[in-house]
Write a structure and sequence with these properties.
The chain has two domains: about 70 residues; about 30 residues. The longest helix has 28 residues. With about 140 residues, the protein is an all-alpha fold. It starts with 5 loop residues before the first helix and ends in an 8-residue tail after the last helix.
């Protein structure tokens, strides 16, 4: 019987990994969605760089007022540009215009996080209050 190294033994006894078709299909779908979204973003940027910046800021979850403040424009001017982009690229219309539910969810999440932090700080202050007492 010939001696084999531990490495050769592991290679001989470990089955080959075969990627699952379902995972490959999901990866292909995600890659095609990403390609399409990047193509649309590039198309918007090539049309007008300012619109492209507004698009990316909107995708990052910023409100119209925040975008206007960052770009030095009014909220109404930002809204007008977003509506024009939605007409020019109908694929982006839902993501650009109908984001009120998403924005409300983000705001609610931020409020819950803030409330959790405040409650944790209050418990910490209560638990460590005895440390601050005079002897």
């Amino acid at each position: 019987m010939a001696e084999i190294s531990q490495y050769d033994y592991m290679l001989a006894t470990t089955p080959e990994e075969e990627p699952e078709e379902q995972q490959e299909d999901a990866f292909r779908l995600a890659a095609s969605m990403l390609r399409e979204s990047l193509r649309l973003i590039a198309e918007v940027f090539m049309s007008d760089a300012s619109d492209g910046i507004i698009l990316l800021l909107r995708f990052s979850g910023m409100s119209l007022a925040q975008i206007g403040d960052k770009r030095g424009m009014s909220k109404q001017a930002i809204h007008k540009r977003i509506v024009n982009m939605a007409h020019k690229w109908p694929q982006l219309a839902d993501a650009l215009i109908n984001t009120a539910d998403y924005d409300a969810d983000l705001a609610g999440h931020e409020i819950r996080v803030t409330q959790t932090i405040q409650a944790t700080n209050a418990r910490w202050r209560e638990a460590t209050r005895w440390m601050n007492r005079q002897n």
